[in-house]
Specification:
Oligomer: single chain
Keywords: Cell membrane, Disulfide bond, Glycoprotein, GPI-anchor, Immunoglobulin domain, Lipoprotein, Membrane, Pyrrolidone carboxylic acid, Signal
CATH class of one domain: Mainly Beta
InterPro entries: Ig-like_dom_sf, Ig-like_fold, Ig_V-set, THY1
Organism: Ptilonorhynchus violaceus
GO biological process, one term: cell adhesion
Helix content: 25-40%
Protein name: Thy-1 membrane glycoprotein
Distance between the termini: 68 Å
Shape: globular
Strand order of the largest sheet: 1-2-6-5
Number of strands: 8
Length: 161
């Protein structure tokens, strides 16, 4: 086998073996609801599974998952939305009893490097409010944002110095 071809095969296998990586985990309050954003980099089109859980008093509580079964107390309060490279947990009616260490766990099919896991400590009094503009950016195309901003640009009177 040609050494160049061998190196190319090894690099391809190594890249395919590590299919996704969690880049960031953040939490914020949207009214009385908690939103936990799990941003990741995905290098494959393989299906992605996830699990959001919370650890409190050294006990793990599964909130929403495609990997294992969610606990009953969260089933009616939690849902997950997925966007390109973003998995969002929405927990309705967030209270201080829901405080703890939240975990996002991601797994891509045929990813042999194991699950990607990231934790964040969530305390209600220390959470920031979710920014409305960032929500708009996540759910809206840039072209639509530009079109929506045109009236604002027309209203501003630019003065040249």
């Amino acid at each position: 086998m040609n050494p160049t071809v061998g190196i190319a095969v090894i690099l391809t296998v190594l890249q395919a073996a590590h299919c996704q990586m969690i880049k960031d985990l953040s939490a914020c309050l949207l009214g009385q609801n908690l939103r936990v954003d799990c941003r990741y980099e995905n290098k494959t089109n393989n299906p992605l599974t996830y699990e959001f859980s919370m650890t409190k008093d050294n006990r793990k509580h599964v909130i929403h998952s495609t990997i294992s079964v969610s606990e009953n107390i969260y089933r009616s309060r939690a849902n997950v939305t997925m966007y390109k490279n973003l998995v969002c947990l929405h927990l309705q009616g967030f209270t201080t009893s829901d405080e703890g260490i939240y975990m996002c766990e991601l797994r891509a099919t045929n990813d042999y490097t194991g699950n990607q896991i990231r934790n964040i400590t969530v305390i209600k009094d220390k959470l920031e409010k979710c920014a409305g503009f960032s929500l708009l950016i996540q759910n809206t195309s840039w072209l639509l944002l530009l079109l929506l901003s045109l009236p604002l640009l027309q209203a501003v009177d630019f003065v040249s110095l």
